[in-house]
Amino acid sequence: MTLEVLATGPLATVQDLGRPGLAGIGVGTSGAADAVSLRLANRLVGNEENTAAIEVTFGGLVVRPTRDVTVALTGAPCPIAVDGRGAAANAVLRVPAGAELRLGVPAIGLRSYLAVRGGIDVEPVLGSRSTDVLSGLGPDQLRPGAVLPIGPPPARFPVVDVAPVAGPAEEVVLRVRPGPRADWFTDEALESLVSAPYEVTSESNRVGMRLDGPVLERSRTEELPSEGMVAGALQVPPLGTPTLFLADHPVTGGYPVIGVVPAADVAKAAQARPGQHVHFRCI
User: Fold this and answer.
1) Four-residue CA torsion sign, 186, 195, 271, 157
2) Are 247 and 209 in contact (CB under 8 A)?
3) Closest to 136 in 3D by CA, of 13, 54, 39
4) I want to staple 132 with a disulfide (CB 3.0 to 4.6 A). Which of 76, 90, 137, 153 is the partner?
5) Distance of CA 79 to the CA centre of its chain
6) Pairing of strands 53-57, 80-82
7) What are the residues whose beta carbons fall under 8 Å from the beta carbon of 79, sequence distance 6 or more?
8) CB-CB neighbours of 226 under 10 Å
């Protein structure tokens, strides 16, 4: 049983929950940028939460199964059509063999997750089927003509038809915990970080969300030795505007981190699209 990719939109990749625990050998976690939505999509079709699915950036995916499949779409809500007939997000859908499943452009949010009952059964690399766009680990980014194997269906069955889930917010509010290098910045910098909004720029990707807004002034000017980085790290390069690291972030960095966004809010950040405003709240 396979899924043929007919179109991908701007970017479509295979993602699970990534490769945790390998930063010591220089391998980042990667995985779904919005892990909350991936977990929900898999639960809806009866998969284990870590089963590989398709992460779709800004819609445009078109796929066709060779046999009847059960799917669910979560994350950024976008128009869904099965052979031209509309369907609902956050719901269990049946796609007949040979039918085209087509995703439109989401009105809000950025990344959608298409889970197939049985999972996308591509070859794992270091224990994960995730595509890491920074390191190149994992399967290639999806291209038209790609054929994706689907794994055997799990023993358990879907237990709900629709999940009552709120869509992505129009205004993104992210909690941030100061440190570990907050002392490298002036008190005014910390105040600026939480008192004015930042705009998501078009340079953002799965590696990090580049922000434009108030400049964060440093109190120390010396170089910082490279140190470990995590998803959610708010790193500030010399220009003074922060970058929020997402799923495919580097494992080390040499610019000071003024604060760290908790994992639950990193999933919210992954749905922010260029031009949206982001507000930080200190915890």
Assistant:
1) positive
2) no
3) 13
4) 137
5) 19
6) unpaired
7) 59, 86, 103, 104, 105
8) 12
Summarize pLDDT for 129-183 with one digit per residue, the tens. 999 999 999 999 999 999 999 999 999 888 888 998 887 888 899 999 999 999 9
- Tokens found for residue 39: 């977990």
Q: What is the mean pLDDT of the chain?
A: 96
235-249 per-position pLDDT tens digit: 999 999 999 999 999
DSSP code string of 225-277: --EE--TTEEE--TTS--EEE-TT--SEESS-EEEE--HHHHHHHTT--TT-E
Can you say whether the dihedral through the CA atoms of 174, 169, 204, 72 is positive or negative?
positive
Tokens of 3: 């899924």
Phi and psi at 35, nearest 5°, equal: -65, -30
> Exposure of 134 by Cβ count < 10 A (0-12 exposed, 13-18 middle, 19+ buried)?
middle
Q: How many Å apart are CA 112 and CA 103, to the nearest integer?
A: 9
- Contact of 112 with 106, CB cutoff 8 Å: yes
Residues 6+ apart with CB under 8 A from 102: 61, 62, 80, 81, 82
pTM exceeds 0.85: yes
Q: By three-state DSSP, how is residue 22 classified? A: coil
Structure tokens at 107: 């009105």
Residue 147 near residue 139 (C-beta atoms within 8 A): no
Tell the residue number behind the tokens 């922060």, with chain if given.
242
The answer to whether 154 and 82 have CB atoms below 8 angstroms apart is no
Domain ranges of the chain: 2-149, 172-282
- Token output for 237: 């390069």
